[in-house]
Design brief:
Layout: H1 23-41, H2 52-86, H3 89-95, H4 97-113, H5 124-147, H6 153-180, H7 188-219
Length: 224
């Protein structure tokens, strides 16, 4: 028993081996295995599961839940901040369209591009939301300023596009090129983070200059 217990016999280890192609099945069965072991040992021993498969499964679960929590928190904080800045809850909600959809589309592209959820990509949602929100903030702030000059929504939109369109394009290009430079990194999560960040910044620019003006022109929210 010396190979399976500590020197003072206070700790013991039960080990099993599985084929690697069965690792996913083992991860799914871990809750059942834990309950079974706790039933067997009852109050005689504290059962603590471990092992590479179990730890990897727990890490994947932690990464996923932490990504969702951080994104939801960032979404709420940014929505409230923009609404207060624009003094309009409706405009604040409209501003989240070009911010939320690019992040959602980028996350949906991850399995298509073969990019897995890891330490680097788990941060992409909340960080990208903070990056791309600049486009809609600049656009809507200028929109509110132009609304003081005229009541015609199409004149307001055209003046806003003429005023902030070029700066938004150059800013987005600069940001994308900065993240694209991560392709030269040797750490794979950093490479994936750079690719996804560049995609989400490009999509945010398209949504800010195409989708957001179209939605505002269609819904005609109160700008004053």
């Amino acid at each position: 028993l010396e190979q399976f217990v500590s020197d003072d016999y206070s700790l013991g280890r039960i080990s099993t081996r599985v084929k690697m192609n069965k690792s996913l099945q083992l991860a799914e069965m871990m809750p059942e295995i834990e309950n079974k072991m706790r039933t067997i040992f009852n109050d005689y021993a504290l059962v603590i599961p471990t092992g590479t498969v179990y730890l990897m499964h727990q890490m994947e679960h932690y990464l996923l839940t932490s990504q969702v929590k951080s994104f939801v928190l960032a979404f709420i904080i940014i929505s409230i901040t923009i609404s207060l800045m624009l003094k309009s809850i409706r405009l604040g909600m409209l501003a989240m369209i070009p911010n939320f959809l690019p992040v959602f589309i980028t996350l949906a592209l991850m399995p298509v591009l073969g990019i897995a959820l890891d330490v680097g990509t788990a941060m992409i949602a909340s960080i990208a939301l903070g990056l791309v929100v600049d486009d809609s903030v600049h656009f809507l702030a200028r929109l509110k300023a132009e609304a003081l000059e005229t009541n015609d929504i199409f004149t307001i939109l055209s003046r806003t596009m003429y005023s902030v369109g070029r700066p938004l394009i150059f800013t987005s290009i600069a940001l994308s090129l900065g993240f694209i430079s991560l392709l030269m990194a040797s750490f794979n999560p950093s490479v994936n983070f750079g690719i996804l960040s560049s995609i989400v910044i490009f999509l945010a620019l398209v949504f800010a200059l195409v989708v957001l003006p179209a939605v505002i022109g269609l819904l005609r929210p109160k700008l004053k």
